[in-house]
Amino acid sequence: MCGIVGYVGKQQAAPILLDGLAKLEYRGYDSAGIAVENGEGIHVVKAQGKLMVLREKVSHTTLSGTIGIGHTRWATHGAPSDVNSHPHLSGDGAVAVVHNGIIENYQQIKEELLAKGYVFHSETDSETVAHLLDDFLKQGYDFLESVFLMLDRIEGAYALEMICRQEPGTIIAARKNCPLVVGKGEGENYLASDVPALLHHTRDVYFLEDGEVAVVTAQQIHLFNHDRQEVHRDLFHVEWSVDAAEKGGYDHFMIKEIHEQPRIVEELFNHRVDLEKGDIRMEGIELTKETLEKLSRIYVVACGTAYHAGLYGKYLMEKICRIPVVADVASEFRYKAPILDEHTLVIVVSQSGETADTLEALRIAKRHHARVLAIVNTVGSSIAREADDVFYILAGPEISVASTKAFTAQALSLAMICCHMALELGRMTKEEFRTICQDWSAMPRQISELLKQSAIEEALAKKYAQSKNVFYIGRGLDYLVSMESSLKLKEIAYLHSEAYAAGELKHGPIAMIEDETLVIAMLTQKALYEKTLSNIKEVKARGAKVIAITMAGDTEAKKTVEDVIEIPQSSWMMAPLLANVTTQLFAYYVARELGTDIDQPRNLAKSVTVE
Ligand code: F6R
To answer: I need a labelling partner for 20 at 20 to 30 A (CA). Which of 77, 184, 359, 524 fits?
Structure first.
């Protein structure tokens, strides 16, 4: 996600802000900017591209001042560009704001501000905050009260830093669901979205809690809760090394990203689900009844983990929308003779938006007049730019090579698109949609519960890390998620593993089962439970050790298998995604047990831009 820094003190702010942003580069970004206040006004310099571009621009200005805020942006609303970069200024430059997160209701606020005569320069949700704050200041409220009034209006997730001409020498910061840290110095204080940006200055910090506001001057730091009451807390002394701090205290980016999933699912849900209307916010993507009825088929095309998410989407769309869907890996699709015309919808799925095979599949589809919908994480990526429509999964930068949080967000995004199509086609009632929404909204809590019990996967990893062959089996959606689980184990633990449809075992692969073969069986699909249980008994009879991943309350599987991982009760659609979180953890702990390079597994790259 974006990175935020702030400084107020006795030194020139610009070099400190630029160095702080450099420490946050690992978070991923596509543009950067700083704002410095010097008693005469707020001066902003921002630029698309890497920090060197910003440094170069700054070197051509006289950006003097001892208070400032800075930002590295990872685009979510509006393409990466100079104008969409932060900080954003209010109309007459009275306020500067940097923002990390998503303001859900910015459209509505923007319309009100436009009606009052505010002029917007960027496509971002964040600029709304600058104008809204300015509006309250102009009504005569002081800086802090204006911030509180602004926070009362905005919905969504944010880490915000604001400076204003009216009260020079003060930075006000606020947080909800996005990290923000205040660092205490001697006669100078610092802010950052993450500890690494502070470590060269101070190790004494306050971690802002959700709903809190910090008022930071050179001499003082005051924290307030959402009810405007001052909060007193002891400083936290950070012992982490710089490397550990970048990973938020986790040992690897992979486990950090696994732990980000509850927040990402919640943000995606809040951003996309319109409960009042009973539909998905498609943000201009035209998948109307008329367009859908004219479709002869849908192709879902992707690579690796994104392909597995695509398989999940295909399953839902066929089952719920009753539209024929073909899922294909992009490297195959591009050399086949797919049936493409203006009645075909091609959905390409890609975290990076730069995968060469997927990009080529998109181009082939467009050449044949098919409409292309991209499900992408990286705003402004090649796939996002070239597709007809883009549905962003809002997972934030994924640094670990092994994709975890992006898979969950891709699968959920496909489920959302599927629901929208089904509602349009009259194949899903609003009532059914609301039931699905209830399950989605429970997911963040359920994933958090799974993460809290990760000692189970850790212990199982210790027990089974020396396995020579691993089989993941399941039926229906469980089979598709088995493929993703198996890929995760292969790529980071270098363990031979295969995913099989449980019913297919007896057609060959069961010959491989011998004493001590590890079989991980998914049992989340109630309708297929008995069938999969029979397959478990078949492998047990041939000496396999079995871990069953099943729903809480299942007493049957326990009687048959060695080990059980329980997931919270959930529906057929969501339960496999919960099961997948447990296999992400299992793969992670096995890899740790075997001492592999978890974040940078051998022979792999994060973005495969070559064929
Ligand atoms: C596996 C993994 C890869 C990617 C694949 C597609 O953990 O990360 O299999 O899923 O290379 O990448 P994107 O989604 O960027 O197109």
So the answer is: 77
Q: Which of 479, 444, 448, 484 is nearest to 584 (CA)?
A: 484
User: Of 608, 609, 610, 611, which is best to mutate to test ligand 1, by the most ligand atoms within 8 angstroms of its C-beta?
Assistant: 608
Minimal CA–CA distance to 312: which of 575, 27, 36, 537?
575
Question: Which of 366, 463, 540, 606 is labelled catalytic?
Answer: 606
As a whole number of angstroms, the distance between CA 26 and CA 233 comes to 30
294 has catalytic annotation: no
> pTM for this one?
0.82
Tell me, letter by letter, the H, E, C secondary structure of 417-450.
Answer: HHHHHHHHCCCCCHHHHHHHHHHHHHHHHHHHHH
Mean pLDDT of 435-444: 97
Q: State the DSSP code for 96.
A: E
What the block records as the tokens of 488 is: 């995760």
Distance CA 493, CA 516 (A): 18
One-letter amino acid identity for 412?
A: L
CA 504 to chain centre: 34
Residue 556, token pair as written in the block? 């049957």
Q: Is the CB of 305 under 6 A from ligand 1?
A: yes
Distance from the first to the final alpha carbon of the chain = 28
Q: How far apart are CA 15 and CA 82, in angstroms?
A: 20
Give percent above pLDDT 70 in the chain: 99
Pocket residue to mutate for ligand 1, from 308, 351, 354, 414, most atoms within 8 A of Cβ: 351
Looking at the CA of residue 606, tell me the nearest atom of ligand 1. Answer: 8
Confidence of residue 611 (pLDDT cuts 50, 70, 90): low
Give tens-digit pLDDT for 151-167.
999 998 899 999 999 99
**What is the average pLDDT value for the chain, to the nearest integer?**
94
Q: Please tell me the distance between residue 397's alpha carbon and the centre of ligand 1 in angstroms.
A: 13
Q: What are phi and psi of 131, to 5 degrees?
A: -70, -40
Catalytic-residue membership of 303 = no
| DSSP secondary structure of 506-555 | GGTGGGG--TT-EEEEEE--GGGHHHHHHHHHHHHHTT-EEEEEEETT--
**3-state helix/strand/coil string of 124-158:** CCCHHHHHHHHHHHHCCCCHHHHHHHHHHHCCEEE
364-380 burial, b for 16+ CB within 10 Å, e for fewer? Answer: bbbeeebbbbbbbbbbb
- Characterize 121-138 residue by residue with b for buried, 16 or more Cβ atoms within 10 angstroms of its Cβ, and e for exposed: ebebbbbbbbbbbbbbbe
CA distance 184 to 203: 8
Q: Give the residues across from 519 on adjacent strands.
A: 471, 546
Look up residue 503 and give its two tokens: 């019913």
d(CA 567, CA 578): 7
Which DSSP helix (H) or strand (E) runs through 110? Answer: helix 106-115
Is 80 exceeded by the pLDDT of residue 77? no
